[in-house]
Amino acid sequence: MQLILFYPRWGSAQMAWPKFLQKIKGEGYSGVELSFSLVPQENKELLSILSDFDMQHIGQHWQTKAVNFKEHKEQYKRHLYTLVETEPLLINSHTGMDFFSFSQNIELIELAEKIEQETGVPIAHETHRSRFAFASHVCLEYLTELPFLKLTADFAHWTCVAESLLENQEEAVAQSIAHTYHLHMRVGSSQSSQVQDPRDTNYRHELDRFMQWWMAILQKAAMEKRPFFSLVPEQGPFPYGLYQKNTQTPMAHQWETNTFLKNLVVEEWEKRSRLD
Question: How many Å apart are CA 5 and CA 230, to the nearest integer?
């Protein structure tokens, strides 16, 4: 199974696209995960730049936050179809809202499935705070109801919500791992959705726990004979990552921590693949 590495545009928006793409391509990334606007000409220009650098992309949807459900659904539908038109490898979607009813969120997930079946573009729903899958035990209810559901695993949100490393929610985590089709690699803790630096030995227990989950996700995908698996190192910028007191100097640099996680996961997976 091939690992396809993508780097997030999140945190690097200040960098010109050519410089950014050249940088991540030089570090072995095959593409970028990014959101698109609803302006066709803007998207056309951006896709042209990606093509010039021979870079793939994952379309990210996060923009839909309308409180009125009818408006929310229409906006959600429009954003998904816009992303489909960019021809991404897949779409990573922040879907629904935590305060919508179960049936309302089901309606949105089923809409995404209809679009996936119609267009052939896979849509994975991120395990993200404020969305339908904001907690592991809640996500389990949706997985039980909708066996086709694909997830983007970002379990750092869940550890923060549960105020634990999910030791008492093994079934929910196992089922979510089985449904994961895309991975965001960010290390969280029981008190935050991101540890400040995963290289810090104070967070060794958290890093080990997340590595166990990530390897289980890759092993499950390999057992299913998937030809590839996409993953993104996603330690984030401020306010996920904090500044030093009274400055705008990060306590840990996003690029360095993401490079650390990328190398750690790739090396561990290659080692396990050789043993198999």
Answer: 6
- Element containing residue 17 per DSSP (H, E): helix 17-26
Both tokens of 161, joined, read 């919500």
Residue in this structure with the two tokens 């573009």, named with its chain if needed: 121
- The pair of structure tokens assigned to 131 is 């969305």
Inter-residue contact 109 to 146 (CB < 8 Å): yes
CA distance 12 to 144: 37
* Cβ atoms < 10 Å from Cβ of 137: 15
Distance CA 150, CA 185 (A): 17
Residue range 120-141: mean pLDDT, rounded: 98
pLDDT tens digits, one per residue of 24-63: 999 999 999 999 999 999 999 999 999 999 999 999 999 9
Grade residue 274 by pLDDT with cuts at 50, 70 and 90. confident
Cα-based angle 156, 171, 135 (whole degrees, multiple of 5): 35
Full-model pTM: 0.96
Long-range contacts of 63-72 (CB under 8 A, 24+ apart): 63/35, 64/94, 65/97, 67/97, 69/100, 69/104, 72/97, 72/100, 72/108
For the chain, count helices (H), then strands (E): 9, 8
Which DSSP string do the residues of 98-159 spell out, in sequence order? TTS-HHHHHHHHHHHHHHHHHH---EEEE--TTSTTSSHHHHHHHHHH-TT--EEE-THHHH
d(CA 9, CA 35): 8
Q: Using one digit for the tens of pLDDT, what is the confidence trace for 179-229?
A: 999 999 999 999 999 999 999 999 999 999 999 999 999 999 999 999 999
Q: Specify the amino acid at residue 70.
A: K
Using alpha carbons only, give the angle 48, 85, 31 rounded to the nearest 5 degrees: 50
